[in-house]
Amino acid sequence: MIKIATFNLENLFTRPTAMNLATDEAGREAIEDHATANAITAKNMYLDADKAKLLTLSQKYGWHLLDPPKNALVQLQKVRGQLFKKPQNAPLQVVANGRADWTGWFELKRSDVDWNATFNTGRVIDAIRPDILVTIEVENRPTMKRFHEQVLQAKFQLDYAHFMVIDGNDDRGIDVGIMSRFPIRAIRSHVSDVGANGMPIFSRDCPEYDIELPVGQSIVVLPNHFKSKRNGNDQESQNKRLAQATRTHAIAMAALQRSPHVLIAGDLNDVPASAPLAPLFGAGFRDVSDHADYPTDRPGTYETGLPSHKLDYLILSSPLWGKLRTTGIERRGSYHPATWTPFDTVTKTSEEASDHHLVWADIDL
Questions:
Q1: Distance CA 170, CA 206 (A)
Q2: How far, CA to CA in Å, does 135 sit from each of 190, 224, 228, 333?
Q3: Neighbours of 349 (CB within 10 A)
Q4: How many CB atoms are located within 10 Å of the residue 47 CB?
Q5: Bridge partners of residue 186, in order along the sequence
Q6: pTM for the full model?
Q7: Which residues pair with 135 in a beta bridge?
Q8: For site-directed labelling of 127, which of 148, 250, 310, 357 has its Cα 20 to 30 A away?
Q9: Which string of DSSP letters, residue by residue, matches 281-314?
Q10: Each residue's pLDDT tens digit in the chain (365 positions)?
Q11: Domains assigned to the chain
Q12: How far apart are CA 296 and CA 300, in angstroms?
């Protein structure tokens, strides 16, 4: 029996401060400003409107100052050349005319994750002890290695011999990865897949991990993290998730040529009945929420587990579904004491492992 799980970790040691405020709305503006500034400065030529927008944003975050505020949610990292100039007795100016005139970028300020939250992340994983764990919103592979050594091994005597994170398209340090007791024999990245508009399809990546199982079989795991609703669920966001679902399903279908056991897993940021996710369930692929053992009172995997909070998935190919024996959700790392009893080490929201819940499945492989 092989136990497989997916868990949105919400970062392990550091997280963009704008993504960890009391409400999503509080940090949404900074996240949007960060994206806008990087999009403008990536252009070959800056239009007058671009410069005006950069000036407005700099007044908000202090990018032009010799000593910018250390608590600014969006920070400028400058390597060469000048973006801003403040002449004496003259208004602030954007002096770079395009990407070639300076080297630098904008970053979201990062804050340390509460140690208790990091410990409780390990505790959630320890409660289930999956053989294969898909990790969503993890900083990078070195960070995962530190978490493995300093938390999972040191505190819970859990050992994963194989783990990987591929840097994706999101520059906020919220990538997708995998931890496995079994060897990863092949890795394929789809970070560069582009849609009809010439833009990357995947918000992070849709990597393929071919994992060799001890019984002479293999499984192909596709971690993913679809476009978020954090900035709203407009038609553009829905179209993005639809494109991601369509391409993910195509990748999964091709993977069936290597193994009948194919798994799509992760935070897909929409409910099962939504139109954007519909392509994922073609050709016999099914989510574990279809299984009789899956909780029906609170099927959601986020916050309080309502049906509208069903965001995290383990979607199995038809042959793999035939080997599914049981499934469940581990919620005790999330702090909602009026709804369920959390771990005794989770006494407030800041100590939560995540506001997502771990979804697991036992598969007879």
A1: 12
A2: 17, 9, 16, 15
A3: 13
A4: 12
A5: 210
A6: 0.88
A7: 7, 177
A8: 310
A9: G-TT-EEGGGSTTS-SSS---BTT--GGG--EEE
A10: 999 999 999 888 888 898 878 777 778 889 899 989 999 999 999 999 999 999 999 999 999 988 888 889 999 999 999 999 988 888 999 999 999 999 999 999 988 888 999 999 999 999 999 999 999 999 999 999 999 999 999 999 999 999 999 999 888 888 999 999 999 999 999 999 999 888 999 999 999 999 999 888 999 999 999 998 876 678 888 999 999 999 999 999 999 999 999 999 999 999 999 999 999 999 999 999 999 999 999 999 999 999 999 999 999 999 999 999 999 999 999 999 999 999 999 999 999 999 999 999 999 99
A11: 2-14+113-363 (3.60.10.10), 24-110 (no CATH)
A12: 9
Report the distance separating Cα 82 and Cα 327, nearest Å: 56
Tokens of 153: 């091994």
Picking from 287, 167, 231, 206, the residue whose alpha carbon sits closest to that of residue 33 is 231
> In which residue are the tokens 């679809």 written?
226
Q: What is the DSSP string of 73-104?
A: SEEEEEEEE-SEE--TTS--EE---SGGGEEE
Residue showing tokens 């011999």 = 161
Which element (helix H / strand E) includes 182?
none
Handedness of CA 172, 359, 334, 143 (dihedral sign): negative
